[in-house]
Write a structure and sequence with these properties.
This protein is an alpha/beta fold. The chain has one domain (about 1-290). Helices cover about 50% and strands about 15% of the residues. It has a seven-stranded mixed sheet with strand order 1-9-8-2-5-3-4, with helices on both faces. Strands 6-7 form a two-stranded antiparallel sheet.
């Protein structure tokens, strides 16, 4: 029965992507806005998760120097988040069908010099980011913006037909996909060839793969992978994020992250915590652009200052 449902899902989604690709480019934002408003009601459970996450993080965010927003309630931010996700979905559908040139051409890159300095070391690169802005767009635009390809570390989709569809889209833009299970060998192989790896490092991981850090004032399990990979290979770690700004996207590339060199549990925790602070800065500056619908604090949800 499940394969039949998978097929029906992918057929419905494919025709949805066709419809989104057919709309005039000037209507992307308005249609995406409507799609997002529909999504928040269709995905009521995810909306509830987002509101709960935002409610618990909001006091911390409002104290952060980067906070400068008029929103007062978690419901307001959750609504804006779904609108953003709707616009991102419409954009990604257009990219799937090769109609995203206008979107890519309109991307602004800030901190390009940080990429150039790290790239000049000729040792490969690890881009560390999160589910921020239209995160798919970073990888899909990478070849156009930097004349290079990116291997993206990703989770295999439960629906194998959807997985094939997403993989095909990424490869169309001269990228490759490395699936998380058994990924280390492939990652090392790419970096030995001086390639670029993209890691979304902002979701909860299982205890064996992570370490406890503070995220927006609460304990959370974070992946050790970026720091461990950089220590083993010596390649630069580059924090980078994308956000939506008026009618275009902005990719911000930060300076190379300096590792402590301490591979003890305490040292890795220190490095991962410091790396995560860049993500916190981003979320507080652009709260509607983060993926609040994920249970980021599961299995470790006590306050950061708890005993």
């Amino acid at each position: 029965m499940k394969p039949v449902l998978w097929i029906l899902q992918i057929i419905a989604f494919y025709f949805f992507t066709l419809a989104m690709a057919a709309i005039p480019e000037k209507r992307i934002r308005s249609v995406g806005r409507r799609v997002g408003l529909i999504m928040q009601w269709l995905l009521a459970k995810r909306r509830k998760i987002a509101i709960d996450n935002i409610r618990q993080a909001l006091p911390y965010m409002k104290r952060h120097p980067a906070w400068s927003h008029p929103w007062e309630t978690p419901e307001e931010i959750a609504r804006e988040t779904f609108i953003h996700l709707g616009m991102s979905l419409v954009e990604t559908c257009r990219l799937y069908h090769g109609k995203g040139n206008g979107i890519i051409d309109n991307i602004e890159v800030r901190g390009r010099e940080n990429y150039d300095l790290a790239h000049a070391k000729n040792r490969g690169l690890v881009f560390v980011t999160g589910h921020c802005g239209n995160w798919e767009l970073v990888a899909l635009a990478f070849n156009r913006l930097f004349n290079d390809s990116m291997s993206v570390l990703a989770r295999r989709q439960d629906n194998p037909y959807l997985n094939t569809m997403v993989e095909k889209m990424r490869m169309h833009y001269k990228n490759s996909v490395i699936y998380k299970k058994g990924s280390l060998k492939q990652i090392i192989g790419v970096l030995k060839k001086k390639g670029v790896i993209g890691i979304l490092a902002d979701q909860a991981v299982v205890v064996d793969e992570g370490i406890l850090i503070d995220v927006l004032g609460r304990r959370a399990w974070a992946s050790k992978a970026p720091v461990v990979i950089a220590q083993k290979t010596g390649v630069p770690l580059i924090p980078a994020f994308i956000h939506r700004e008026q009618d275009h996207h902005v990719i911000t590339i930060l300076p190379e992250f300096e590792l402590s060199g301490d591979m003890s549990k305490t040292g890795i925790q220190h490095d991962i915590q410091a790396l995560s602070r860049h993500l916190e800065d981003f979320i507080c500056a652009h709260p509607r652009d983060w993926y609040w619908v994920h249970r980021r604090w599961k299995r470790a949800g006590e306050p950061a200052d708890a005993a």
